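Folded chain entry —
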Amino acid sequence: MLKIEGLNVFYGAIQALQNVSLKVDQGSIVSIIGSNGAGKSTLLRTISGLVRPRTGTVQFEGREITSVPADKIVSLGISQSPEGRRIFTNMTVKENLMLGAHIRWGQPGIADDMEKAMKRFPRVKERLNQNAGTMSGGEQQMLAMCRAMMSRPRLILLDEPSMGLAPNLVTEIFNTIKDLKSEGVTVLLVEQNAHRALEIADWAYVLETGVIQLEGPGRDLLVDSRVKELYLGG
């Protein structure tokens, strides 16, 4: 579904990604783990069209999208739940969800999809008419994921969805990610909780200082001595 080849991304003179190549098969969960500053978020932002690579290509469903504007990439079937949630705090929860469906305005099914999203996270429904900025961090993360689903993506990019959340909410988020896969949505997950990310991954990559250092089935990397030492506490 997604194929990235030879991606080189710079911020000024600083190289953030070095010759990164990876693929995401349709219907799978692919996890990317790595330390802070490894380039994980830059990779997702490049796929989304928010950052332009100096060289390399991004292909989605056989079409090169390297130079496609970000809004058009959403229309093609890719959406992102960004790091830090990035919700619109001065808008209501409902308005945030409606913005997630902006490419579908005038089309049927938006209300049904909103109801489906809120069924996944009942606390979002309970706060539908309040300002999103008054929600807790966990609730805002749920809203960000719901908003990303409102465009009916075939590929969803999740950037650190468990960051700063209580353990019970982390479990809820990861259960939802597995549910998305069961519903046919392909997931590319960037996550610092390496253990959880590898547990659910069909395939995983280790990204360090902008370079893919390891890759393999998630369960294999979970028991890899190098991964255990660096990311799983030995």
In short: The first strand starts at residue 2 and ends at 11. The chain has a mean pLDDT of 90.
